[in-house]
Design goal:
The protein is 44% helix and 19% strand. By secondary structure, the chain is an alpha/beta fold. A five-stranded mixed β-sheet has the order 3-2-1-4-5, with helices on both faces. The protein has a five-stranded mixed β-sheet with strand order 8-7-6-9-10, with helices on both faces. A hairpin with a 4-residue loop joins strand 6 and strand 7. The two termini are 31 Å apart.
Length: 336
């Protein structure tokens, strides 16, 4: 008998809900994005994000159920992102899910946001099964994860400072691109020379699988500011291409090293930055060289969405994971 899970996501500035069947089939996926509202501030304003989640979450869930052509009585469980993320935003999602679970008598299934991103790859590639190595790259996280099974993870590499997505947004701002900057850097990079500017590749002493993007971000900011002070105009396309190329090299080289160290032949990419064409292309090229199988989510599943929570919620549900009504949102939490 099939298992239907409602997934609710509200960790940042997308209010999302979806219904999945047995984890891999998505019946609906509704997303209310706040990007246009936050754009004028150059980034997400937590207070505004929380308020918009409050306004949109009921409608989002109702539309997800309607599109899936099911009611609460047709569901087997309610999955919700409870960590990590913006605490105010998370509280809206967890509070709503708890109320819904209490009213309906359905089991409440807590889902870790990063586990959700990894699960997005299952939706695009229904044949993918653990174990595999996953490179998770987003605005708030950059890590290498050994996926032992659907609910058991081991982080073997992580960032010591900025996440790759954060570096994209901050460098985009200094280049004069609007928020969110990653997509604009990607677009500009298509017309630029990736070798025009020599940028540093930071290393973390004693932690060869860990990442650091703070130095690279600072180098780009200093380059832009020094050029402005000298009255020299930088080539935005070239700088965007050089930055994207450098970030891609850092991410992919660490991933290939980890695959070699641990003997993985199956590689996955997940997270918001997995939509970046430079990262995708670089990873695909290096995997093809080595004969590795590469699994990447569809572009529509790279950002935050309800499908990934509904999918991971299914596996957590099948593993017997449940939350009581005292489930609380947590701003920071290890995937392990």
């Amino acid at each position: 008998m099939s298992v239907k899970i409602l997934g609710i996501e509200s960790s940042c500035d997308e209010t999302a809900a979806a219904v999945s069947v047995d984890g891999r089939t998505i019946l609906s996926d509704i997303i209310y994005s706040q990007v246009e509202e936050h754009k004028k501030f150059g980034g997400v304003v937590p207070e505004i994000a929380s308020r918009r989640h409050c306004e949109n979450i009921l409608t989002t869930v109702e539309q997800a159920l309607a599109k899936a052509e099911c009611t609460l009585n047709d569901l087997d469980g309610i999955a919700v992102t409870y960590a990590p993320g913006l605490i105010g935003a998370l509280l809206v999602g967890t509070g709503f899910a708890k109320g819904l679970a209490m009213a309906s008598g359905l089991p409440l299934v807590p889902v870790h946001h990063i586990a959700g991103h990894i699960a997005s790859v299952y939706i695009t590639h229904p044949d993918l099964e653990p174990p595999f190595l996953c490179l998770v790259v987003s605005g708030g996280h950059t890590m290498l994860v050994r996926v032992h099974d659907h609910t058991r993870f081991e982080v073997i590499g992580r960032t010591h400072d900025d996440a790759a997505g954060e570096a994209f947004d901050k460098c985009a701002r200094v280049m004069g691109f609007p928020y969110p900057g990653g997509v604009h850097i990607d677009k500009a990079a298509q017309s630029g020379d990736p070798h025009a500017y020599k940028l540093p590749i930071p290393k973390v002493t004693g932690c060869e699988l860990d990442f650091s993007f703070s130095g690279l971000k600072t180098a780009v900011i200093n380059l832009a500011h020094n050029s402005e002070q000298k009255g020299v105009e930088i080539n935005k396309n070239d700088l965007a291409a050089s930055f994207q190329h450098t970030v891609s090299e850092i991410l992919v080289s660490k991933c290939m090293l980890a695959a070699e160290m641990y003997g993985y032949k199956k590689i996955a990419l997940a997270g918001g930055v997995s939509a970046n064409s430079g990262v995708r292309s670089c990873l695909q090229t290096e995997c093809e060289k080595r004969g590795y199988d590469l699994f990447m989510p569809h572009i529509s599943l790279c950002g935050d969405n309800g499908s990934m929570i509904a999918c991971q919620g299914y596996y957590e549900f099948m593993a017997g994971k449940r939350a009581d009504i005292d489930l609380n949102a947590v701003a920071t939490m290890s995937l392990e």
